[in-house]
UniProtKB/TrEMBL annotation:
InterPro entries: Cyt_P450, Cyt_P450_B, Cyt_P450_CS, Cyt_P450_sf. It comes from the Bacteria. The lineage of its organism: Bacteria, Bacillati, Actinomycetota, Actinomycetes, Micrococcales. The keyword Heme applies. The keyword Iron applies. Belongs to the cytochrome P450 family. Pfam families: p450. This is Cytochrome P450. GO terms for molecular function: heme binding; iron ion binding; monooxygenase activity; oxidoreductase activity, acting on paired donors, with incorporation or reduction of molecular oxygen. Keywords: Heme, Iron, Metal-binding, Monooxygenase, Oxidoreductase. SUPFAM superfamilies: Cytochrome P450 (SSF48264).
Length: 426
């Protein structure tokens, strides 16, 4: 489970992602009635990494469900198609073939399970992540962490500060450490574990050097959890590890899900901090609107997570021959659920779907998934980032904005975010 979204790793290339499953089995027997998916050969992974949204728009227009040989899977880019996949786990399974995630984490985590196997892993942490618990138990810690790292950002000064490296990334790491209950583990170690688990999850080319890194971090994390799990059984608190430790789950399940959360629980929240500031900097009239009336912050968060979804795609696999939005898909096929593309679908969000607009009518989006894999941590994200981290940054530095004198950078398409965001104020 990612804290904030339905997927976990943050690979930057197609080769580094579970999206690149190397084969699709032939369809047995006769397929249900439906059109054959068009084969699209113009999708360029390099173009997706640079900026995927033009590719998404073309796919939605030409082939909202398409077979893409370069990625060896069917890409679903329409809102209706992605939503249907999420609502039908019996047909579109999260337990995908060739998943390196299980190897990387040492056991199968909940993200690669369907119900009924998924529910026992998920249910114990639901109470920890509900709005009341977040407000009472975690919002004060999130606020203290934000103030701590705002000091760091401010000390860098308006000519040298980077919102990602000086604020968003360390804040997301500290929040995750507290929420999980990793106690005295250094934030830098958790960040390294996250990077190594992500690399292992994306190691479809079976690079031994990546496995060595992953195995080393897995061993370190397992050693910590071997002490923490029994500790929390004797001394329960409001943390996620405590909830799992006292759920009756085997220790291997607990450890796999903790490592899953470590692997993805930092990237998405840090990218939402930078996404929100970047969006407001590029839409000054909306920035003025929210700074004049803070009641707009929830709308800023919700629109930013729809407009530039940190999770762009996650995998599913068909269990039977099926038809999705009139297109035939064989059993055993890899599916790319392109939620970032779906979140720009005009059929769901109107003709201005590609625009950032906090005043748009509220409509459901897929940035946090849907169905049984709806992100359990979306309330934590809205609190830690949308209600605390970003509003506090503007309270401390009212003139906060992107520093156009320096170069910003983005990366990724399966998981996409700002890797460097120079900011200034005053």
């Amino acid at each position: 489970m990612s804290m904030y979204a339905p997927g976990c790793p943050f690979p930057h290339t197609t080769e580094e992602s579970e999206a690149a499953v190397p084969s699709v089995p032939a369809a047995p027997g006769v397929l249900p009635v439906g059109a054959q998916a068009p084969a699209i050969d113009w999708v360029d992974p390099a173009e997706l990494i640079a900026d995927p949204y033009a590719v998404y728009a073309r796919l939605r227009t030409e082939a909202p469900i398409a077979w893409v040989p370069n990625l060896k899977r069917y890409l679903v880019t329409s809102y209706s198609g992605c939503h249907q996949v999420e609502q039908d786990q019996e047909t579109f399974s999260a337990n995908v073939s060739g998943a390196t995630m299980t190897r990387a984490l040492g056991a199968q985590p909940m993200l690669r399970k369907d119900d009924p196997e998924h529910a026992p892993d998920r249910l114990p942490v639901n109470p920890v992540l509900r709005p009341k618990s977040i407000k009472e138990s975690w919002a004060p810690a999130f606020a203290a962490n934000a103030e701590m790292f705002l000091d760091v950002l401010e000390d860098k000064g308006p000519d040298a500060a980077d919102l990602n490296s000086d604020y968003a990334a360390p804040l997301a790491s500290k929040n995750l450490r507290d929420l999980l209950g990793l106690r005295d583990v250094p934030v830098e170690a958790i960040r390294r574990w996250s990077h190594d688990f992500i690399a292992g999850t994306g190691n479809v080319l079976d690079d031994p050097a990546i496995w060595a890194r992953c195995d080393s971090s897995q061993g370190e994390a397992d050693a910590v959890l071997a002490e923490l799990i029994p500790f929390y059984r004797e001394h329960p608190d409001s943390s996620m590890i405590s909830a799992w430790a006292n759920s009756g789950l085997p220790a291997s399940n607990v450890a796999a899900n903790v490592k899953l959360t470590i692997s993805g629980g930092m990237n998405e929240p840090q990218h939402m901090v930078t996404n929100m500031v970047w969006a407001l900097s590029n839409h000054p009239e909306q920035r003025a609107q929210v700074l004049a009336d803070p009641s707009w912050w929830p709308a800023v968060f919700d629109e930013a997570v729809r407009w530039r979804s940190p999770i762009g795609m996650y995998p599913r696999e068909t269990t039977v021959d099926t038809v999705l939005d009139g297109v035939r898909i064989p059993a055993g096929s890899g599916i790319g659920v392109m939620v970032a593309a779906a979140n720009h679908d005009a059929a769901q969000f109107g003709d201005t779907a590609a625009d950032f607009d906090i005043n748009r009518p509220k409509r459901p989006h897929l940035a946090f998934g849907s169905g049984v894999h709806l992100c359990a941590g979306h309330w934590a994200a809205k609190s830690a980032i949308g209600q605390i981290a970003v509003p506090k940054a503007y309270d401390r530095l009212p003139g906060l904005r992107v520093d156009t004198r320096r170069v910003e950078s983005w990366d990724g398409w399966i998981f996409r975010g700002i890797t460097s965001l120079p900011v200034t104020w005053g």
